[in-house]
Model the fold of this input.
Amino acid sequence: MDKEKKRTSEASLSGAVMKKAKIVALKFALPQKQWQTPKKNFSAAPSINPGDAGIWATCDMHREGLCTVELKDLFDQYAQLLYSGPGGAGNAAVTDVTLNDAADIEAEIQQEIQGMQNTTSKQQALFTPVKIEVQCVLFFKTRQPVEPVSLVHRICEDAFCDKSLKRTRFVKRLTPMTRMGKANERSLEEVSKLVLGPVFHDDGRVWKFAIRPTIRNHQAMKRDDIIKRVADLAGKPHTVDLTRYDRLILVDVYRTLNAIAQNILGMSVVSDDYEKFKRYNLAEIYEPTPPKSTAGVT
Done:
């Protein structure tokens, strides 16, 4: 009896093993699902687009990451100073809930938290760093109400007036860009009309001006061609004066090497204190390079 039960048990076990083996064999015989490496979503990364405004910055080699963090803190400080204040969005969420609604304490708390989150996200969105893969160069996109020219001017003016309040270690030159576009002749004309119009055609005053192009990693557009075309668009009765200008037109042309290589162009008009503020070079404002010694020169 015991032997019969043993044989039955062994047969059942053997049958179970065979069944499992068949399932495993069948599984490996079927087409297997292939593992796929997730594709990088480059479209989600910030990029520079026609119509954008922003600020170029330069730094020492291999200091791009530190400079980005430093600039983000600096810009946030000035955002609080220039674009926030009593009566802004930060206070609205608290005042929307009156004492008559005190019974709904949870709703009040949630509304206040939401208001704080909205205020923080709005402030952060004023400045967006864009990775451009150009050595020693950074770019921050800005949005309204930030005006890049006046912001950079204020930062440099404050540094110039009180060098003891040094806020940066790695940042060198800041270059505001009122309008960005593609680096080609058609876009140069479009950007020029938008940037130069309010200064040279709508203001009613006559200016002496100069043009200063900066070109990096780009060969399609030539410096002399840019100067000639921009000067024509500034037009008469304004005149060119390279040393005693009232307004300076900055034109920056870059080929960026981020996810998608881009040929981009930006333009702005700055005031006549550009040289006084060391061409907006914060490092030079804080610690000016000593003038070259003329001792022994006859």
In short: Residues 2-29 form the longest helix (28 residues). Strands lie at 53-59, 127-130, 137-142, 171-177, 179-182, 208-216, 239-240, 247-256, 262-271. The CA atoms of residues 217 and 255 lie 5 Å apart. The longest strand covers residues 247-256.
